[in-house]
Fold these 2 entries.
Entry 1:
Amino acid sequence: QLTELRSILTFTVKLARTAGTLMLEGSQAIQSTLDIDSKVNSIDLVTEYDIAVENLVMNEIKREYPNFKFIGEESYSSGTRPELTDEPTFCVDPIDGTTNFVHGFPYICISLGVIYQKRPVLGVIYNPFLNHLYTAIEGQGSYLTRGSGQPMKLPLASPKPLPALSKALIAVEWGSARDVQAISARSNSFLRLTGDPTDGVSGGRMAHSLRSLGSAALNLAVVAQGAFDLYWDIGCWAWDVCAGVVIVQEAGGVVTGSHAVLAAADPSIDPFKVTPEILTGRKYLAVRRLPDTPQET
Ligand code: IPD
């Protein structure tokens, strides 16, 4: 067990807030210059600020914790791909919600997770645009601090068991694959979640509604908060979910999935049992939870 998790948390929160200042400056600049690049396709975006924030964070971590390994979204993209070992490892998405960042939609965060013995043990998710800070240490609960307020234990209200998917507010994402097969598989899943079960066509569960925050980390944070009942996604990377996994679990939720990332606010739900046809049997759904696992094709 890592004994110094409390002091790592203090360091990580400070770092997240420093990174947040750079993100706020960057958002002003990016919207006036629109200096945006793309990765896999024209909607998989990256900006100079994703790289600048990652460099800032990586340098600070290296200075403070020289023995820790570092996995970051942008350094991974540019070819620095450390193997995941049992050593303490920071796993970082400098700007989760890059598309939101580019458009000025204020659901954007930095996600900083610590993995130890291949298990996420600490998570910090900070949205500087709303000044929302989510934190968790394994075994010590999850907290949300809004503005300069006191940390509030998550979930914010004691969760009632979710009787059925028809009562759920579900977070989903559209992903960046836009070929017909990928997009229709996703939208068919959305139809089965929300369609009218009596229409004889959709076989839906008529969930209350779907939401897309555009940031995997914030979707997980809002599950931990108790406002989303579920978050279902495919193709997430380790840095998208590492911090959020700890935050959801420490709020009493469940994160599961070898084929999809799914977080449920109510631990009595086995999401695979509730929605088997939505979550399984889709060949294009690939596991991207850790950098060295097979990727979406
Ligand atoms: C993306 C967002 C998106 C999720 C994708 C992520 P990025 O991260 O979290 O909501 O659906 O899987 O890659 O590119 O904004 O850092």
Note: The chain is about 35% helix and 20% strand.
Entry 2:
Amino acid sequence: MNFSTDMHLDQNYPLKALNTFGMDVYARYFVEPGCRDEILTLMNYRHMVRLPVLFLGGGSNVLLVNDFGGLVVKISSKGIDYRETGTGEVLVTAQAGEIWDDFVGYCIGQGWAGLENLSLIPGTAGAAPIQNIGAYGVEAGELIERVSAVEIKTGREFILTRSECRFGYRDSIFKQELRDRAIVLDVTFRLAKFRHNNPSPDKYDGGHDCVADPGPSAVKLRVDYGDLKRELQAMGIADPSPANIRDAVVRIRSRKLPDPALLGNAGSFFRNPVISDGVYEALRKMYPAVPGYPAFSGSASHSGERTTESGKSAVSIAENSVSENESSDSGRNYKIPAAWLIEQCGWKGYRCGDAGVYPNQPLVLVNYGKASGREIVDLAHQISESVFTKFGIVLESEVNVIE
Ligand code: NAP
């Protein structure tokens, strides 16, 4: 295929270095558009070619089970633009292929606050709106002004505003109606300006203080999240800057999560389930220690109707089985840490061959070397079965499993 650009079509291309699980699989065809125009050019060819297509960003949220028999497109478009609004805010646009954490570091280095809690999340900027990445009390969707995308079938470009993106807990229109139908081209964030004591225009130095402009209270840094609060206390910081928050988040995440360069993984394998308050109360009666946090976005998971380990009373936990007098649903939902459920089922640190459950964070499945995608899928299946059997809660995969 000739794209009449610098793009090159490869055949039988190794994907091991392009997925953080380190799955040693191949793409029948491979192409890497390096800018927005190349993505659009590719879309024009795309509807003429009848091949399955897999789009990859950072490859950090995907489990490749087999060789891919179609075309793999790695989005590598780079570039950051910004415009000041004149009201203490800035609209910053990142091309889809920007490495997310580099982008966060760049923004903080420029004195723009908002994204600091989302430090060290793997992947690209283009992936951020898709699952509405979130961490330590902040979701990307709150800060997104608009997303520009292209429809795969027609090559038509379109723009969605924040409300049109329909962000929910780790969810958006890109995972629903637009799933497999659109590619994110760029994302624009509305961030708050901070004045630097130690300006370094394009480099994050992690240590300087920032003075809020127009004022720290207007910026509303989020430091209430338990782990983050404790880390800042341990660092001896009472009045943190965005750079301090970034440092704290980097410290927590580095301690808790494996570095994919050293140990294959795709971060959290399962989503934290969201359940209704009736189901949560029923669960608490049986397991008083179960943690739960009010969920302000996202709808309750379906817990299914199968029988659980603890018999009748446990069956009543299953969402579809909670009867009127057993449940006092008020329409409020609760997030339950999937890691807690998995640990209670005894999986923490489990290893079978080269597939395992990370000892410091049981939400993360790891490839110790030569695990196959199938082995990881089987392990995930066993884990979710045991969580359902014990708690009546269905764990959903956060990672995209490509069979
Ligand atoms: P964690 O802090 O142990 O939290 C586990 C669960 O408890 C999550 O559902 C979390 O909600 C909730 N939670 C804990 N403290 C909370 C509080 N003060 N207020 C509200 N909810 C609270 O989770 P972790 O696994 O170590 O991960 C740390 C952070 O990274 C979490 O925020 C997690 O969501 C985030 N993360 C995001 C992604 C992603 O975007 N793809 C992947 C991995 C981890 P939240 O999930 O709403 O925080």
Note: The longest helix spans residues 373-391.
